[in-house]
Design a protein that fits this description.
The structure holds two protein chains of two kinds. Chain A is mainly beta. Chain A has a single domain, classed as Lipoprotein localisation LolA/LolB/LppX (outer membrane lipoprotein receptor (LolB), chain A), CATH 2.50.20. Chain A is 13% helix and 46% strand. Chain A contains six helices and 13 strands. In chain A, a hairpin with an 8-residue loop joins strand 4 and strand 5. Chain A is globular, with a radius of gyration of 18 Å. Chain B is mainly beta. Chain B has a domain of 177 residues. Chain B has an 18-stranded antiparallel barrel. Chain B has a three-stranded mixed sheet with strand order 8-12-11, with no helix packed on it. The two termini of chain B are 24 Å apart. The chains are: A mainly beta, B mainly beta. Chains A and B meet through helix 1, strand 1, strand 2, strand 5 and strand 6 of A and strand 13, strand 14 and strand 15 of B.
Chain lengths: 269, 436
């Protein structure tokens, strides 16, 4: 189970990370002055509020059209540059009540702290930083895909400007600095308006591996987020749709929510 | 199967619940600020405070050796009811089982039944509950609060090997340090296979000796017979640590002997008794890269130990039990765990049934395939003292959301030790489980 939940908090940030949209986004006139690294740094540093809560539903569809559903509730809060999050699974029933707690640190040399609670065993346990190339919950997203990827991990190059779904975007090539990573290349389309990656293509040594595309992006309470997106595996025909059911920012989440004591209860009070 | 008289508790539970719910819906009690987004919109509806869940599971096995008859064959329904009133949370669960191999397991029995109140800096849970401590997988070191249920030896899932206890658990909660206080007024013993159970262990007296066994004498519910535990836990960046003390009764009885030769034939009367003991425990857990290192140690003070001699009563002995384990998640949906467990008895006497140093190793390897629809795993328990082992290989397939089919093989191997005595019970099995 540990491998199915690690990184889910990051998933939330990936799909629903907010930008202080218009205020933070540069105008088209600034485009030529920005490098690929600067654009991705802006994406990384966009405002996400002090805390967030949301519900997420994933629909996993295989090549034959068979579907599986995964649903969860997520809460996270900033502590300076660090971040704490807790997530509880709602569906399917066999993992209902499974909880995941993470304390994520900005400092590159400091390992995140992560715990998992399994209701069937009624116990919590420490888990390691999950492998970056591992798929979570059977979806087509790896932890690497959904994580809040620091710009320094890639070498970026601004290729050109393009429209995607009617939105002006920068097309950026990202090559991992660490050659052992599962992808050799990622091409990302960053919306100028929302400062979010709304389309991406992932390549390995054999060619195109997966494609990501956001299909619903909108602004709520001053924060922009991706509400529906899909990752499709070109090799297997398997795809995953991710849907944010509700998203709320700055609700004043209590610090006691992000503790192992909460995890051990097996429910969010 | 036990049929505890839970009807009075159930009535009390729902009576209290009804009153709490009415108060909550009329606004007499403050609502908690941390509700889930959707849940906030549902609070107006009384019935939406209640959640029903559970699972239905059927398992059937066949003995590998002749006569290839079933060793395990049962159908079990678990029903769970949770009710969230904001200031008070209640949980009740019950099992209904039809067991074709162990008659005593057929029936209906309550499982857990507790109420909980949560505050920012403390919480309390009162009622029949399962409490699990420790960092170990599949073995017990400091995990001695909820007694084990060995009705089907070790072949049940881990969550089915614990019995709930009637307890009050109070926790004082800090940011990274918690203090847990537990009071258990009602003693509950370990559940062992008996009579016609294929997992029952028969002990034959030596030739020419008559042996009788009384029923185990259990501590009656009273204040002085209560069990109490305290645990201090710290969850720090990069390390979890805990220290505990548990003043308890031994879940397993030790049998006192009374030998007589009144009729000319040696007669041994066994009188199983539960004894007081204290357990001091330490735990730690430390992640590093893709690994998690974990360990536990428990010092048992004055645990009565069975002897192999017919005329020697069990003597109290101190012992130290420790475990070191490592979990490795190398990626690509592989999980590998290994543990080593040792128990040393101090002041050892040769007449003791247990060995002075007993060591066990476990290895668990798991791989998920096809977008995690299929899981293949193998768990090995290996007795380092005499080479006996228990190995469970398993394949599990997700047919639909919450609906799983699994099949496996359990191999016991050895002579007459903890695994070897079940060699004839080596089995292949098939299971269907639907969670709702």
């Amino acid at each position: 189970m540990k491998n199915t939940v690690s990184g889910l908090l990051a998933l939330l940030l990936f799909c629903a990370a907010a930008g202080a949209s218009d205020a933070a986004a540069p105008t088209s006139g600034q485009t030529s002055e920005l490098s690929g690294r600067e654009i991705m740094t802006r994406v990384y540093n966009r405002d996400e509020g002090d805390d967030r809560r949301s519900t997420i539903t994933m629909t996993l569809t295989n090549k034959q059209g068979r579907q599986r559903i995964r649903a969860m509730e997520s809460y996270s809060k900033n502590y300076g540059q660090d971040r704490k999050g807790i997530m509880i699974f709602l569906d399917p029933a066999d993992v209902k009540g499974t909880m995941y707690l993470s304390w994520e640190y900005e400092s590159p040399g400091r390992e995140d702290d992560k715990w998992l609670y399994m209701p069937a065993m009624r116990k919590d346990r420490r888990i390691s930083g999950a492998s970056r190339n591992e798929y979570f919950m059977g979806s087509d997203f790896t932890y690497d895909d959904i994580g809040r990827r620091h710009p320094e991990k890639d070498k970026q190059r601004l290729l050109k400007e393009e429209k995607v779904r009617g939105l002006d975007c920068w097309k950026i090539e990202c090559v991992p600095v660490d050659r052992s990573e599962s992808y050799t290349l990622r091409t990302a389309w960053v919306s100028k308006e929302y400062l979010l990656v709304i389309k991406a293509e992932y390549f390995d040594k054999d060619g195109l591996l997966k494609t990501f595309e956001a299909t619903d992006i909108h602004t709520q309470n001053g924060f922009s987020a991706i509400y529906v997106c899909e990752m499709a595996n070109a090799a297997t025909g398997h795809k995953t749709e991710m849907r944010i059911g509700s998203m709320r920012y700055n609700t004043g989440l209590n610090d006691s929510l992000f503790t192992v004591a909460t995890l051990q209860r097996g429910r969010i009070q | 199967m036990r049929r505890a008289g839970g009807s009075v508790c159930l009535f009390l539970f729902f009576f209290l619940w009804q009153n709490a719910a009415l108060a909550a819906t009329t606004g007499e009690m403050a609502t908690y600020s941390e509700k889930a987004v959707d849940r906030e919109q549902d609070d107006a509806s009384f019935w939406k405070r209640f959640k029903v869940s559970g699972w239905l599971e059927g398992i059937h096995s066949m003995r590998i050796r002749a006569p290839h008859d079933p060793v395990t064959s049962r159908l079990r329904l678990r029903l769970e009811l949770a009710a969230d009133m904001g200031w008070l949370y209640g949980f009740a669960s019950a099992d209904a089982e039809k067991n074709w191999e162990i008659d005593s397991e057929t029936g209906v029995e309550p499982h857990e039944l507790w109420l909980e109140h949560v505050d920012t800096r403390w919480d309390i849970r009162v009622g029949r509950q399962i409490i699990i401590w420790g960092k170990a997988d599949g073995v017990q070191v400091t995990d001695n609060i909820s007694p084990p249920d060995y009705t089907e030896s070790m072949t049940r899932d881990l969550d089915e090997i614990r019995q709930p206890v009637e307890a009050a658990k109070l926790r004082l909660l800090g940011e990274v340090v918690n203090l847990e206080l537990i009071w258990i007024p009602v003693f509950r013993k370990a559940k062992l296979p008996e009579k016609d159970n294929p997992w029952a262990v028969s002990s034959q007296p030596p030739p020419g000796v008559r042996m009788y066994s009384d029923d185990a004498r259990e501590p009656s519910p009273s204040l002085e017979n209560s069990e109490a535990a305290v645990k201090l836990s710290g969850y720090f960046s990069g390390m979890d640590v805990a220290a505990s003390a548990f003043y308890t009764w031994d879940d397993m009885p030790a049998r006192r002997r009374a030998v007589s030769r009144a009729s000319g034939v040696p007669e041994v009367r066994l009188r199983p008794e539960h004894h007081r003991m204290t357990i001091y425990g330490l735990e730690f857990s430390r992640p590093w890269s893709d690994f998690v290192f974990r360990g536990e140690a428990a010092y048992f003070v004055g645990r009565y130990r069975e002897t192999t001699a017919l005329d020697r009563n069990p003597p109290p002995k101190d012992s130290l039990k420790w475990l070191l384990g490592v979990d490795w998640t190398p990626g690509d949906d592989w999980t590998i765990s290994a543990q080593i467990l040792n128990e040393k008895i101090f002041g050892y006497q040769r007449c003791l049934g247990a060995e002075e140093n007993d060591s066990l190793a476990t290895v668990n390897i798991s791989k998920k395939l096809f977008n995690q629809m299929l899981t293949v795993s193998n768990m090995l328990y290996y007795d380092l003292n005499d080479g006996e082992f228990f190995n469970r290989g398993k394949v599990e397939y997700e047919i639909a959301n919450g609906f799983f089919a699994s099949a496996g093989v359990d191999i016991f191997s050895g002579k007459n030790g903890q695994f070897g005595m079940y060699e004839n019970n080596s089995q292949i099995w098939f299971k269907l489980k639907y969670s709702f």
